[in-house]
Write a structure and sequence with these properties.
By secondary structure, the protein is mostly helical. The protein is built from 17 helices and no strands. It has a single domain, classed as MFS general substrate transporter like domains (Growth Hormone, Chain: A, Up-down Bundle).
Length: 433
């Protein structure tokens, strides 16, 4: 027999089944990346077909962010109550239905409703996969594993962008959403068969039969069985998902949520408006999809670089540096360019630093929230952050509508990352279980 479930996973070697579960979370994050970006890929066609102005288009670009805000907060708590795995499966179904509906929408109001449903699924998925990746990693490889999960998002944008360029060459924007729906449905059996429930979640829940269920998963992964559940601290207080809003965690919750909220404004300005900006600068829609693909290539590289550096450099300081870099790159992108290759380079570097900052924040979520509220805390930060960020494309749309130039709009939207960097520099890191 072995030790406690927590010590077996945290101190033991990473097994193939653990890496497989983490790779699946990266693939699910890739689905999130494509689903969120699908509206960006489709936006020039929607504006052309339905004659919507930039302000209205801003709402279309933001609606799934509203859904993500609600889904992250509500479904993050669900994942801490019923489990990560069933929540992930339910979110996949919601995402697939939302994408399918968007592909058949005949007007802006119907499209907004389906994008809201898609966002609900994405929000719950983000909270669940972040917790799952953290809890299936050992102490040595956790930062790298979390970064691997995070880079799935831009990789979804890259692979999706390559497909979308082919779709838009001969088809319509409706087919972009249909492709996303089919891809999302295909992952239901993948999660069902390849991703067992989080051992740490089962260990914390301590439901009847928990040890037997945990040992079945440990044996499947190639670990020795646990002799008992992880010991509880003496006189352990009652734990609740509302602990993130109580004195012990409230300050941390507020600071990490504000930092994420501020940075995500910059992040989504780049992801949502790049195609329309590129088209407005005189380039073809196909070229705009190509630039957005390179934004995500940069994001994937930034996440990978961050994951490697985070195994050797302090996490908080590295995240602050990434956030400052994101501000500078967004401002630089806002200067525009008459040459497509120069504009693409600027956008790629903006994607690199922005996603490196996202990687750092996701790793910090796993560090600052204990297991029993990890999905709740992550979901709360993502939900509140993306609720505010839902206004980012809208605000940018109204700023453009008011006649402000690209340089001023980019500077205003990029300032969020700088505020996030200042906030994180004041955050005190504490050990959690």
């Amino acid at each position: 027999m072995g030790d406690s479930p927590k010590s077996i996973l945290c101190d033991g070697r990473m097994r193939a089944g653990q890496w497989l579960a983490i790779i699946v979370t990266a693939c699910l994050n890739a689905l999130d990346g494509f689903d969120v970006l699908s509206i960006s890929f489709a936006s020039p066609g929607i504006a052309h077909d339905w004659g919507v102005d930039k302000a209205t288009l801003g709402w279309a670009l933001s609606m799934e962010l509203v859904g993500m805000a609600v889904g992250s907060v509500l479904l993050g708590g669900v994942a801490d109550r019923i489990g990560r795995r069933p929540t992930m499966l339910g979110c996949l179904i919601a995402m697939a239905l939302g994408m399918y509906g968007a592909g058949h929408a005949g007007g802006i109001g119907v499209l907004l409703a389906w994008r809201l449903l898609t966002g609900l699924g994405i929000g719950g998925m983000l909270a669940s996969t972040n917790a799952m990746a953290a809890e299936y990693s050992n102490d040595r490889w956790r930062n790298f594993a979390m970064a691997l999960m995070v880079i799935g998002y831009p990789l979804g944008g890259v692979s999706g962008g390559l497909v979308v360029q082919r779709i838009l060459a001969n088809g319509s924007w409706h087919q972009v959403f249909m492709f996303g729906s089919v891809a999302t449905v295909s992952f239901v059996p993948v999660v069902w068969f390849l991703v067992p429930e989080s051992v740490m979640f089962l260990d914390k829940q301590r439901a009847p039969g928990a040890l037997e269920r945990i040992n079945a998963i440990l044996r499947r992964l190639g670990h020795p069985a646990a002799s008992a559940l992880s010991p509880l601290p003496a006189a352990a207080p009652h734990k609740s998902v509302l602990d993130i809003l109580k004195p012990g965690l409230l300050g941390t919750t507020a600071m990490i949520t504000f930092a994420y909220s501020a940075h995500i404004v910059s992040f989504y300005f780049i992801l949502k408006w790049v195609p329309k900006i590129v088209v407005d600068l005189g380039f073809a829609p196909k070229a705009a999809a190509g630039v957005l693909t390179w934004v995500n290539m940069g994001g994937a590289l930034g996440g990978a670089m961050f994951g490697v550096l985070a195994t050797r450099v302090g996490l908080k300081g590295l995240t602050v540096c990434a956030l400052v870099g994101a501000t500078l790159m967004v401002v630089w992108f806002g200067q525009g360019a008459a040459d497509l290759s120069v504009l693409t380079t600027k956008a790629t570097l903006a994607g690199l630093f922005n996603n490196a900052g996202i990687a750092g924040l996701y790793l910090l979520f796993a560090r600052v929230f204990p297991t029993h509220v990890r999905a709740t805390g992550t979901g709360f930060a993502i939900g509140v952050g993306r609720g505010g960020a839902a206004l980012a494309p809208v605000i940018a749309g109204y700023l453009f509508q008011a006649g402000l130039g690209l340089a001023l709009v980019a500077a205003a939207m990029g300032a969020g990352s700088l505020l996030a960097a200042v906030t994180l520099s004041l955050l005190k890191m504490r050990e959690v279980d």
